Amino acid sequence: MKHLAVSIAILLSCAAPRAQSPDESLRRQLTDFLTAASHAPASAADKRVFDLFFADDVVYTRASGVVIGKPDIMKSLDVPARGGDPTSTYTGEDIQVRRPLGTSGVVIITFRLVQQLSSGTVNRYRNTGTFVLRAGRWQAVAWQATPIAQ
Fold first, then answer.
1. Paired sense of beta strands 106-117 and 122-134, if any
2. What are phi and psi of 55, to 5 degrees?
3. How far apart are CA 42 and CA 132, in angstroms?
4. Distance of alpha carbon 69 from alpha carbon 66, whole angstroms
5. Measured in whole angstroms, how far is the alpha carbon of residue 53 from the centre of its chain?
6. How far apart are the first and last CA of the chain?
7. Between 20 and 30 A from 111 (CA), which of 4, 17, 138, 147?
8. Alpha-carbon distance 90 to 137, whole Å?
9. How far apart are alpha carbons 45 and 38 in whole angstroms?
10. What pTM, to 2 d.p., does this model score?
């Protein structure tokens, strides 16, 4: 009987859905963000993804060197696509999740952002995001995008 109970416990633990680790959760959040960034114009759902992704006090340094905040990020989602402009699809490669000094409430994500334009052009950037756990949700408080030379 004891063996049966142990066997059932093992089977149930294998079949039970596993909670996502913080690293998996952040990777999923990044993937959802890149998917939303690929939509033009941005839908209400896409805007919600951006709103949840970036903290209200985020500092974002664009690839051009311009520093912006969340109001600028959110405002950029309302700019309509111009006819004839290529559309973009964004994906992430070489995604690394790091916990500085073993902290549990701060995570740094680094990855290679790949921008695939409908014209066939591919641009690559090195991105770094610093996330803080606030009210049970990870949010980017700092973001840096650096172009990778072709």
1. antiparallel
2. -70, 155
3. 25
4. 10
5. 7
6. 66
7. 17
8. 23
9. 13
10. 0.82
